[in-house]
């Protein structure tokens, strides 16, 4: 029979984790996140539903989002053992300059809606991490202010071709004068996708106050206080807009844009030029022949045409067709550093992530973005070591394979939509 005793107070005190009883500050909450899903859960509690759904949602039935995530989930890793992995190099040269991770923080619109610091917070976190950040045409911070906020960072600029070509040319000139070293031309938005979450939520920029909004203010007072007590939420590249995101896209973006416009931009932009929104070999070859320095395989995060192929599944075919020297990036569905490793092993030069860092931004501003990047970094380093690889540049097709095409229904996305 086991003898019992009364433990000394000192022994009990040593077992108590004082941090668990400390006030729940933002930094403490972030410290308790270990995955991007943890950040997502925290973000969901911190912002209004319409804001969270804008980030989380996609077009129509959100099948494209589900396919993108399923493609990464179905990757099969092939580790090698008895390798010295004491030190690993996570850096990679992308478009002529080294980045400390094969990751670009992708352009996203309305970013100050997620957190009042918006793009400035993202740029500062990216600069400290040594990775590029791309500012969107529909950003809420000007390119001049962004560069001033993170003067040591590597700033890219993302361009939509507007109906007003003079306005597009003016944006290109501003990005050049501000010191951006790469231009991303997004080509998959002749019109806006049907994003029904935004329609149902009545999302507008700036938010309009009605009965539902007043109720939400009571649930998210800090977000609303930050919104009304800081500079007004507006677009930095054009005059104010009072409608929905879809109405904005259909009003400004040019559905007649063609290859001649890409050639015009190539002539106007003296630095690196990447075309984003490519979904096949033929278009990839066409834009590279027209002067682009790289392509991004992308379905716009599942937010434009629904039921498209997962960009990751296009990657091996496009890489094989373009050859080893082409710069081929991929986005959509990246939820961990293991996903980053998988993409590189399957042929990507690097990945663009959007939702991943926006979860961090919503959860905790600049510190939240930094936490998202840190999670990706930690995941990537661990995955390389477990694969028996000492550098990102050493990842090849021998380390990963795409899974067979399973008959997935879009479970994770649709279940989240139903529970949001």
Q: Could you walk me through the main structural features you see in this protein, from its secondary elements to its overall organization?
A:
By secondary structure, this protein is of the alpha/beta class. It has a single domain, classed as Aldolase class I (TIM Barrel, Alpha-Beta Barrel), CATH 3.20.20. The protein is built from 19 helices and twelve strands. It has helices spanning 9-15, 26-31, 36-46, 49-56, 63-73, 111-114, 118-129, 143-149, 165-178, 196-201, 211-219, 221-229, 245-252, 259-268, 281-289, 311-322, 337-345, 355-387, 411-419; strands at residues 76-77, 92-94, 97-99, 103-105, 133-135, 155-159, 182-186, 272-278, 294-297, 327-331, 350-353, 400-401. A hairpin with a 2-residue loop joins β2 and β3. 48% of the residues are buried. Residues 402-420 have a biased composition (Basic and acidic residues). This is Alpha-hydroxy-acid oxidizing protein. GO terms for molecular function: FMN binding; oxidoreductase activity, acting on CH-OH group of donors.
CATH fold annotation: TIM Barrel
CATH superfamily: Aldolase class I
Question: How many distinct beta strands?
Answer: 12
C-alpha-based Rg, rounded? 22 Å
- Could you list the spans in which at least 5 consecutive residues all have pLDDT below 50? 407-420
Inertia-based shape: globular
The level 1 CATH classification is: Alpha Beta
* CATH architectural name: Alpha-Beta Barrel
Strand content: 5-15%
Number of domains: 1
Q: How would a textbook summarize the main sheet? A: 8 strands, parallel
Overall helicity: 40-55%
State the separation between the terminal residues, measured CA to CA.
Answer: 53 Å
| Residue-averaged pLDDT | 89
User: From the helix content, strand content and strand pairing, which structural class follows?
Assistant: alpha/beta
Question: Which strand order spans the largest sheet, edge to edge or round the barrel?
Answer: 4-11-10-9-8-7-6-5
Number of helices: 19
């Amino acid at each position: 029979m086991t003898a019992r005793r009364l433990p000394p107070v000192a022994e009990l005190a040593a077992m108590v984790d004082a941090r668990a009883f400390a006030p729940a500050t933002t930094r403490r909450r972030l410290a308790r996140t270990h995955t991007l899903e943890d950040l997502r859960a925290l973000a969901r509690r911190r912002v209004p539903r319409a804001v969270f759904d804008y980030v989380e949602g996609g077009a129509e039935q959100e099948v494209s989002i589900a396919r993108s995530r399923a493609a990464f989930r179905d990757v099969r890793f092939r580790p090698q053992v008895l390798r010295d992995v004491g030190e690993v190099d996570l850096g990679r040269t992308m478009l002529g300059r080294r980045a400390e991770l094969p990751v670009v923080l992708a352009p996203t619109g309305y970013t100050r809606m997620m957190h009042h610091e918006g793009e400035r917070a993202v740029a500062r976190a990216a600069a400290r991490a040594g990775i590029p950040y791309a500012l969107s045409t529909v950003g809420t911070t000007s390119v001049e202010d962004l560069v001033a906020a993170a003067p040591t960072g590597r700033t890219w600029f993302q361009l939509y071709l507007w109906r007003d070509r003079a306005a597009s040319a003016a944006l290109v000139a501003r990005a050049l004068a501000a010191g951006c070293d790469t231009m991303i031309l997004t080509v998959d938005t002749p019109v806006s996708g049907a994003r029904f979450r935004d329609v149902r939520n009545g999302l507008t920029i700036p938010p309009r106050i009605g009965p539902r909004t007043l109720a939400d203010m009571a649930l998210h007072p800090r977000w609303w206080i930050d919104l009304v007590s800081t500079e007004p939420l507006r677009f930095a590249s054009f005059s104010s807009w009072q409608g929905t995101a879809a109405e904005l896209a259909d009003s400004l973006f040019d559905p007649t844009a063609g290859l001649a416009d890409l050639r015009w931009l190539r002539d106007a932009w003296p630095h690196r030029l990447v075309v984003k929104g490519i979904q096949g070999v033929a278009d990839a070859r066409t834009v590279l022949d027209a002067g682009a320095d790289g392509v991004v395989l992308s379905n716009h995060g599942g937010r434009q045409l629904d039921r498209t192929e997962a960009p990751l599944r296009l990657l091996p075919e496009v890489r094989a067709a373009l050859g080893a020297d082409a710069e081929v990036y991929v986005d959509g569905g990246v939820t961990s550093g293991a996903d980053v490793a998988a993409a590189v092993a399957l042929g990507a030069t690097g990945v663009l992530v959007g939702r991943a860092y926006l979860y961090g931004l919503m959860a905790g501003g600049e510190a939240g973005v930094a936490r998202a990047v840190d999670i990706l970094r930690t995941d990537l380093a661990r995955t390389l070591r477990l694969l028996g690889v000492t550098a990102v540049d050493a990842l090849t097709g021998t380390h990963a394979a795409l899974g067979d095409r399973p008959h997935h229904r879009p479970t994770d996305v649709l279940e989240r939509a139903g529970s949001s």
